[in-house]
């Protein structure tokens, strides 16, 4: 499967998809340091620059963790009317011109409530108008083997099939009825699992399919102290708040870039080096590394989704 990575950052989504066997046909990113990191690891991958200059693609999958700044509680919450989040429409423009079989989108959970839910409705409606059945789900990276709580909403669109989109994001056991004893037992094992949402898929005939999911993750991942950052009981990762917290929530120290990479499931020193267009390799500043790591997505989560897309596509 070939994929195009929009709002690519330092290629964290792309790295995850390559890990499961997909081929990257191009990336789009405007940050020079993030582009340089991707160029360092994959110098032969076409860099297409600004998403507004991308015309079309021969990819089977478009993946995009599109900007979330206009959803931030620290911002003005302009949503899709904002300059950054409004770039979502560039994804739809490229999809309209290319008709890839799959679309994978990622954003913060604030998208679900932005403008009273109307922005999420606009996103899903735009996919439906292009002929994509869709499903969405909030996933937390702490249940995929990395020691951080990071909830993100993932939207999968499949050209012509809402059911196949749902098969990617939801396990078979999560859409069938459970008896009370088994359900209670599973909830005990999966204590603390983030709430999942009801997903609705729009079919091409205009009807709606609904997949009701509760506690879809059937097991929790135990994170030992050695897997957490220096034994910290809680780790917070954000481009402006990167620190190890103790059990009382007090800041102990700032995380190193390598620790932040590990929190996202990246190889050590993934963001350490960049390659300029002339081939010169340089050391990326820590501030630039923190920014691109914080803006990215957890690699194991995207690997899980990527494997399921490949399986559904077959």
C-alpha termini separation:
10 Å
Rg for CA atoms: 19 Å
| Number of helices, where a helix is a run of at least 4 consecutive DSSP H or I residues | 9
| The number of domains | 1
Strand content: 15-25%
The CATH class is Alpha Beta
Q: Which blocks of ≥5 consecutive residues have pLDDT under 50?
A: 70-75, 175-241
Output the helix-strand order. EHEHEHEHEEHHEEEEEHEEHH
| Known CATH architecture | 3-Layer(aba) Sandwich
Considering the protein shown, what is the CATH homologous superfamily?
Answer: Vaccinia Virus protein VP39
Please estimate the helix content: 25-40%
Q: Give the integer mean of the pLDDT values.
A: 77
Largest sheet: 6 strands, mixed
Oligomer: single chain
CATH topology (fold) name: Rossmann fold
Strands ordered across the widest β-sheet: 2-1-3-4-6-5
Q: Indicate the overall shape.
A: globular
> What structural class results from the helix and strand content?
alpha/beta
Condensed summary:
The chain has 314 residues and is an alpha/beta fold.
Question: Would you kindly provide a written description of the structure presented here, covering whatever features stand out?
Answer:
- This protein has 314 residues and is α/β, with parallel strands linked by helices.
- The chain has a single domain (2-313), classed as Vaccinia Virus protein VP39 (Rossmann fold, 3-Layer(aba) Sandwich), CATH 3.40.50.
- 29% of the residues lie in helices and 20% in strands.
- The protein contains nine helices and 13 strands.
- It has helices at residues 12-19, 32-41, 88-98, 118-129, 162-169, 180-189, 257-263, 286-295, 299-313, and strands spanning 2-6, 23-28, 61-64, 102-107, 132-140, 151-159, 199-202, 208-211, 234-236, 243-245, 251-254, 273-275, 281-283.
- The strands form four sheets. It has a six-stranded mixed sheet, sandwiched between helices.
- A hairpin with a 6-residue loop joins strand 9 (234-236) and strand 10 (243-245).
